Amino acid sequence: MNDNFTTQPTQSSAHPFAEQLTRHGIPQSVWPYLTQNGVGELVEKLQIVFTQFSAQQLVATMPVAGNTQVYGILHGGASAALAETLGSMAAALHAAGTAQPVGVDLNITHHKAGRSGLVTGVCTPIHLGTRSTCHEIIITNDADQRLATARITNMLLPVRE
Asked: Which residues form the signal peptide (predicted)?
């Protein structure tokens, strides 16, 4: 006997991006804030994976392969996207669902070329306010050499219902 009310797939109560969020290292405690777009298409394309996730320090990796420019080195735009991803996610963690972070300034200085392996971005807060945040992101290679230093400022806008 088939009862349409009790045999509904359990998928309906699952998070719509559960597989993606797991693949990118997002802790389940953050999933409720990511029901609309998951981690976003660019994080998927760049293969960014979060390895440490707190408001005081956010860490993620990204492969150089697949994110290179014409000379075969890490594309500066990919480094900037990693930095903005970390800074925006850190601002969202700080806001804890009460505000939506919107990047208003991003600057990045490239010190050394990324040639292979993984790069790691470490994001730490400079300023955590009620209307804005500012974070520093240091990007290093597998040998722990600094490749880039970035700073992002996010405005915290009220959440629209």
From this structure: none
Q: What is the pLDDT of residues 93-152, one digit of tens each?
A: 999 889 999 999 999 999 999 999 999 999 999 999 999 999 999 999 999 999 999 999
> pLDDT (tens digit, 9 = 90+) per residue, 35-80?
888 899 999 999 999 999 998 999 999 999 999 999 999 999 999 9
**Whole domain around residue 59: which residue ranges?**
43-158
* Residue 12 is assigned to a structural domain of this protein: no
Q: Encode burial over 119-158: b for 16+ CB neighbours within 10 A, e otherwise.
A: bbbbbebeebeeebbbbbbbbbbeeeeebbebbbbbbbee
Q: How many domains does the chain have?
A: 1
Answer yes or no: is 33 within a domain: no
Active site residue 84: yes
Q: How far is it, in rounded angstroms, from Cα 12 to Cα 99?
A: 27
Q: Provide φ and ψ at 106, rounded to 5°.
A: -140, 125
Identify the helix (H) or strand (E) that includes residue 127: strand 118-128
Indicate which residue of 19, 84, 136, 161 is catalytic.
84
Does 93 reside within a domain? Answer: yes
CATH number of domain containing 104 = 3.10.129.10
